[in-house]
Amino acid sequence: MSQAVRRHAIAWVALTLVLALHVLDEATHDFLGFYNPFVMMLRDVLLVQWLPTFEFGEWLAGLIAAVVLLLIASRAAFGGSRWIQWVSIPYALLMVLNGCAHIAGSLYWQRMVPGVLSAPLLVIAGVWLLVRAAAALRS
To answer: What is the average per-residue pLDDT within 99-117?
Structure first.
C-alpha cells in the first residue's frame, strides 16, 4: 500500500470518527429542538417544502447507520480503491460545509447552536480528507 493511499484511508476514518462525535454532540444538545422549528420557518417563509423534519429515533438511527456504512467503506479506502478516493471529495466538502454552517449559525444567532462544539473538528478533518484524497488521486 502506498503512503498516499494509507494517508487517505486514515483521513477517511478520522473524518468518520469526527462525524460520529458530531452526531453525539448534536444528540446530547437537542439539535432537533433547533433544527425542526428552523425548517418549519423556512417552509413558511421561503415555501421550501422539501426540507424534512425528524423524530429523534429515526434521525439518530439514520445517522448511526450512515456512520457505520462510512466505517465499512474504509475497507475500500485502505484497499486503495479509486472510487472511494473520488467519493471522498463530496463527503469531505459536505462535512466542511456542515461544520461551517454550525459555526456561522452560532455567530448569527449569538448563541451556541447544537453541534457547534464539534464543528471545528469537522471542518479540520474534512479539509484533511480533501487534501489526502487529492494526493491519492494524483498518485
So the answer is: 97
Beta-carbon contacts of 67 under 8 Å, excluding residues fewer than 6 positions away, are 16, 19, 20, 23
Q: Report the amino acid identity of residue 25.
A: D
> What span, in angstroms and rounded, lies between the C-alpha atoms of 77 and 129?
11
Pair 139, 2: CB distance under 8 Å: yes
What burial class does residue 36 get, using C-beta atoms within 10 Å of its C-beta: 0-12 exposed, 13-18 middle, 19+ buried?
Answer: middle
Backbone dihedral region of 80: left (phi > 0), alpha (psi from -120 to 50 degrees) or beta? Answer: left
Q: What is the pLDDT of residues 34-60, one digit of tens each?
A: 999 999 999 889 887 888 999 999 999
Whether pTM exceeds 0.90: yes
Element (H, E) at 91: helix 82-109
CA distance 102 to 114: 8
DSSP 53: -
Q: Measured between alpha carbons, how far is 19 from 22 in angstroms, rounded to an integer? A: 5
The 8-class DSSP code of residue 111 comes to S
